[in-house]
Amino acid sequence: MHVVIVGGGSVGSSIARELLSHGHDVVVVDATAEVIGRSNLRGAQWVVGDACDLDVLQRARAEEADVVVAATGDDKANLVVSLLARSEFGVPRTVGRVNNPKNEWLFDDAWGVDVAVSTPRLMTALVEEAVEVGDVVRLLSFQTGAATLSAYTVPREHPVVASTVSQVPWPPDVALVAILRDGVPIAPSGDDVLEGGDELFFITTTQGEEQLRAMFTTARDVNLRAALDEGGSTAMPATAQRRTAGPPSPAG
Q1: How many CB atoms sit inside 10 A of residue 23's CB?
Q2: Domains, the chain, ordered by start
Q3: What does pTM read for this prediction?
Q4: Contact 147, 203 (CB under 8 A)
């Protein structure tokens, strides 16, 4: 995979280092040559120049890129790079770093951004997840389709404990995609039983996230318990049942 990373600072270098370790072809673009020595990156190709200029992106072979990552410390530059990558070079996937959370609303498909990664939001989410069991925490925003990756740690005494995945009345626009239990990831199926302390990961819309948060709140615990007791396997919408069905077993 050919990846162009704009911004050779600590964030861009860390991304490049991981991708290089996985055998990908990486080009790092930065406005200053000094970062090359500081980055200690081995195997990366470098282009020195302003990535907001088309000729600089051409030198980075942006037209061949599978992904362009705009990882500078300047939100304006990250937006322009994402837009150029999409509109001028037809890059199929762009990732934009959001430095100021107030600018996050700009990082959408209109600016050519597929995935917006807000470091402050992510750090806040990780802190909240570490200290607040029982709250839905947004980890990441996928701007295409306004989808989000959210997490929820199930309290020990929550009504969903001991219920199967198919018994829970998930909102229609919510897909349970993973369960992390004792550090082990589980691909959920309708028959999996939820336990206290499970970390649940969801792909959902913004509206679905709010519905999910409302479903899990203490104020609705009684109603949720009633729905679990009455609904059984029919309480889960058919769309959600399909989305939480485990992947097919590999062929023998």
Answers
A1: 8
A2: 2-118 (3.40.50.720), 132-228 (3.30.70.1450)
A3: 0.58
A4: yes
Q: What is the pLDDT of residue 243?
A: 41
List all residues 6 or more positions away from 248 whose beta carbon is below 8 Å from its beta carbon: none
Q: Are 117 and 110 in contact (CB under 8 A)?
A: no
Give start and end residues of each alpha helix (H) in 40-163.
54-59, 75-87, 119-131
Eight-class DSSP state of 164: B
Rounded to 5°, angle at Cα 147 from 116 and 218: 115
Instruction: Give the pLDDT means over successive 10-residue stretches in the chain (252 positions).
Output: 93 90 93 87 93 96 96 95 96 92 89 84 57 70 73 87 91 92 89 92 90 74 62 42 42 38
Radius of gyration of the chain (CA): 21
The DSSP letter of residue 45 is: E
Give, in order, the Cα–Cα distances in Å from 180 to each of 54, 71, 146, 150. Answer: 43, 29, 24, 13
Longest CA span, the chain? 66
Cβ pair 85, 6 in contact under 8 A? no
Element at 115 (helix H, strand E): strand 115-118
Distance CA 50, CA 21 (A): 26
